[in-house]
Write a structure and sequence with these properties.
The protein has a single domain, classed as Ribonuclease H-like superfamily/Ribonuclease H (Nucleotidyltransferase, domain 5, 2-Layer Sandwich), CATH 3.30.420. The chain is built from six helices and seven strands. It has a five-stranded mixed sheet with strand order 4-3-2-5-6. A hairpin with a 2-residue loop joins strand 3 and strand 4. It is globular.
Length: 195
């Protein structure tokens, strides 16, 4: 906002064109859904060309319904894609914990731990393996909260292919076909589209 350029103007007009072209698009919440929390965590390493900070993103589902999502630039520069993904996992694990506590307050406890999906093998390995510590000293202590929550069985950390990673929509600029595919996985439908 401080120093807009032609590229910023083009990006703004592209977003406005998309919004104008999809007035009937919105989230669909099915009436029959489980109380299973499913989360998708992702990061795009060194995305910002000015600061080289990464973008974290997560999507949280209650059954098949999208209930929470966030995309945010990370506060520090990550030295590796694993560190960037691990920071995103830490943020997503906080959201899983909050949603779990919220369900408990509503007396709607899930019988199974939440599922958290991550498409980065090394970030999942760091979270699951405390012996890997020597190679991860550059990651801040607060990021190790993910490992603590994983060990406390708050969630199961599962792999997912990059193709099916729905949090990609919050961290990367996607082509129209993958963008539309991921919108459908998020539960976004267009009420004006032909059935």
């Amino acid at each position: 906002m401080a120093a807009p350029t032609i590229q910023h103007f083009k990006a703004m007009t592209r977003v406005l064109r998309y919004i104008k072209g999809t007035p009937g698009q919105g989230l669909h919440y099915p009436s029959s859904s489980t109380l299973q929390i499913k989360g998708f965590s992702d990061a795009d390493w060194v995305t910002c060309p000015d600061t080289r900070k990464s973008i974290s993103g997560y999507c949280m589902f209650l059954g098949d319904s999208l209930v929470s999502w966030k995309s945010k630039k990370q506060t520090t520069v990550s030295r590796s894609s694993s560190e960037s993904e691990y920071r995103a996992l830490a943020i997503a694990s906080c959201e899983v914990q909050w949603l779990t506590y919220l369900l408990q307050d509503f007396k709607a406890n899930s019988k199974t731990p939440a599922l958290l999906y991550c498409d980065n093998n090394s970030a999942r390995y760091i979270a699951a393996n405390p012996v890997y510590h020597e190679r991860t000293k550059h990651i801040e202590i607060d990021c190790h909260i993910t490992r603590e929550r994983l060990q406390n069985n708050l969630f199961h950390l599962l792999p997912i292919s990059t193709h099916d990673q729905v949090a990609d929509i919050l961290t990367k600029a996607l082509e129209p076909i993958p963008f539309g595919y991921l919108l459908g996985k998020l539960g976004v439908i267009n009420i004006y589209s032909p059935a």
